[in-house]
């Protein structure tokens, strides 16, 4: 029997936390195991309850959602974070993804969209709200074209860049996990993020794009 996806909700508004808890608790396969009112509190709650997915607001007191995501993902690379915010600013979206967020939704998204995002993130995928998908694709494309030759694919996190370097060198997931001293799941999550951000159709396509950009030559 498949275990429920364990979720923590982080938002500085009590009504939002209560509403999201009620909404998600009514859905099959999801269990809300905690909530927090700011990023700093989220650090403690996540440590205590060890969720699979965190649904994270961005603008919060004490510690914002982007910084909290960065700390949480560094501490536990297998943790998945889905941003749920009102903020559509281009730099904020890119900052969230670079911090390690696995998804970005706007508040006002329907229950099904939030549910699908949580399930996709838990399975190692990247997900963006329907209203943001084309915008994010354009952002990534534009940033790649504007990037300096010394830093291709600026949208990738440092972990994803390291994984892509080894992918381009022909390493398997198991070999990458061994060299980086991380779990196979962490590598799979990083590879999924790479595919999404590079718009790669699969491993071979990602390797071609990486080698064209100079990866895997070391």
Globular, elongated, flat, extended or rod-shaped: what is the shape? globular
User: Superfamily at the CATH H level of the largest domain?
Assistant: Response regulator
N- to C-terminal separation?
A: 45 Å
What order do the strands of the largest sheet run in, or round the barrel if closed?
2-1-3-4-5-6
- Computed structural class: alpha/beta
Percent range for helical residues?
Answer: 40-55%
Number of helices: 10
Given this structure, which CATH class of the largest domain is correct?
Answer: Alpha Beta
Q: How big a fraction of the residues is strand?
A: 5-15%
User: Strand tally, please?
Assistant: 6
Which CATH architecture of the largest domain is right? 3-Layer(aba) Sandwich
Oligomer: single chain
Uncertain regions spanning at least 5 consecutive residues: none
Main sheet? 6 strands, parallel
The CATH topology of the largest domain is: Rossmann fold
Query: Using only CA atoms, what is the Rg?
Result: 17 Å
Instruction: Write down the domain tally.
Output: 2
Average of pLDDT: 85
């Amino acid at each position: 029997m498949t275990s429920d996806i364990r979720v923590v909700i982080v938002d500085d508004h009590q009504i939002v936390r209560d509403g999201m808890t009620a909404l998600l608790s009514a859905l099959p396969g999801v269990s809300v195991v905690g909530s927090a009112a700011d990023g700093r509190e989220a650090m403690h709650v996540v440590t205590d309850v060890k969720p699979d997915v965190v649904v994270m607001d961005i603008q919060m007191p004490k510690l914002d959602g982007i910084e909290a995501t960065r700390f949480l993902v560094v501490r536990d690379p297998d943790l998945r974070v889905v941003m749920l915010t009102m903020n559509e600013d281009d730099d904020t979206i890119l900052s969230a993804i670079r911090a390690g967020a696995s998804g970005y939704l706007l508040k006002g998204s329907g229950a099904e969209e939030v549910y699908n995002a949580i399930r996709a993130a838990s399975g190692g995928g990247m997900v963006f709200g329907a209203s943001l998908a084309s915008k994010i694709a354009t952002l990534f494309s534009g940033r790649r074209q504007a990037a300096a030759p010394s830093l291709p694919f600026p949208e990738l996190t440092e972990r994803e860049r390291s994984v892509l370097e080894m992918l381009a060198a022909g390493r398997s997931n198991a070999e990458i996990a061994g060299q980086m001293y991380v779990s196979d799941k962490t590598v799979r999550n990083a590879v999924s993020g790479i595919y999404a951000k590079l718009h790669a159709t699969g491993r071979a396509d990602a390797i071609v794009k990486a080698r064209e950009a100079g990866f895997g030559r070391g």
